[in-house]
Amino acid sequence: xxxxxxxxxxxxxxxxxxxxxxxxxxxxxxxxxxxxxxxxxxxxxxxxxxxxxxxxxxxxxxxxxxxxxxxxxxxxxxxxxxxxxxxxxxxxxxxxxxxxxxxxxxxxxxxxxxxxxxxxxxxxxxxxxxxxxxxx
Length: 136
Prior knowledge:
The protein is mainly alpha-helical. It is about 70% helix and about 0% strand. The chain has four helices and no strands. It has helices at about 10-50, 55-75, 90-105, 110-135. Helix 1 crosses helix 2. The protein is elongated.
């Protein structure tokens, strides 16, 4: 069983505001700021060459996207994207994880309903497996 399970909980309006701020900061740091730098570099070059028009921040962000996309397309190491499920837990490990979650979330009605639905799903799966073994 995995001992280091990290769960991020967003509770209430304060949690939503903090999550929104984190998303905005990541967007500003990885998209808008490099787009601003690309715009400034482009406009600096455009000031010295008379045939190039200047651009705004939106075009700078698009230029930054083109630069990043070109980097990933033309670099030597190719990116391989693999889609696979994480390592499956056994039924016993799932039951212990759900028991720990139940202990931690006694007040949360939604979480309790989700846990009951998952337990029912596991029971149905077990009964289907038993039914299949009986038929064989």
